[in-house]
Amino acid sequence: MDLRRGTTILVLTMVFIVTSLAGIVGYVWVTGGSGKASIPISAPLLNHSSELNAERLYRIDPSLSKVRFQVGEVLDSEEQVVIGETNEVTGDMVIDFADPIASRLGVVRINVRTLKTDDAKRDRALRSFILESGQDRYEFAEFSPLEFINMPDTIAFGDTLKFQIQGLLILKEIPVEVLFDAQVTI
Fold first, then answer.
1. Cβ distance 116 to 75 under 8 Å?
2. pLDDT higher than 60, residue 29
3. Which of 36, 65, 141, 156 is 20–30 Å from 110 (CA)?
4. Do the Cβ atoms of 33 and 127 come closer than 8 Å?
5. For residue 10, what pLDDT is reported?
6. DSSP state, 46?
7. Comparison of pLDDT for 62 and 22, the residue scoring more
8. DSSP per residue over 62-131, as a string?
């Protein structure tokens, strides 16, 4: 009789575990969404004076641009670096050729729902648990610049500029001050 009772408890425990795992997988599947943008990417337009010959307005072209993140991960006791990226990014920049330090960057908007790594399961977990970008209210992150660092004193068409941008990154409605490396080809 004890053997039957023990077997019944074991079977019920296994059914509970399998049902729980199925529920978790189902939750991740549903809340992670498809990873596709719900609307085309756009950002607030940057005001500039077209009367100043030294200023030129540039728009980030999603087809030629990428946003990347890099994070360390331990999987099966092995450390690895995971890189995710998306080209769903847009924003405006006004370059002042007479005074590069006076150049301005508008709000840069990134669709974090479309970030992809080398693993679809990881991407779905990012959208479900970490970024929660499967929810429409967290689909976009915004970067509002505060300052350019190491902007060259002179620039010309064809130059590739490497500098840093300090600003506020708002992700899941939480602002964090960050410093990004930037590379811009004029």
1. no
2. no
3. 156
4. yes
5. 57
6. P
7. 62
8. GGG--EEEEEEEEETTEEEEEEEEE--EE-EEEEESS-GGG-EE--EEEEGGG-B-S-HHHHHHIIIIIS
Round to whole Å and give the CA distance between 112 and 131.
8
Specify the pTM. Answer: 0.74
Element (H, E) at 7: helix 2-32
CA 70 to chain centre: 11
Q: What is the DSSP letter of 12?
A: H
Strands 140-149 and 108-111: antiparallel
Query: How far is residue 33's CA from residue 136's CA, in Å, rounded to a whole number?
Result: 10
- 3-state secondary structure string, 122-146? HHHHHHHHHCCCCCHHHCEEEEEEE
What's the confidence (pLDDT) of residue 101? 86
d(C-alpha 89, C-alpha 140), whole Å: 10
Mind giving me the DSSP string for 14-36? HHHHHHHHHHHHHHHHHHH--S-
Please compute Rg for the chain using Cα positions.
23
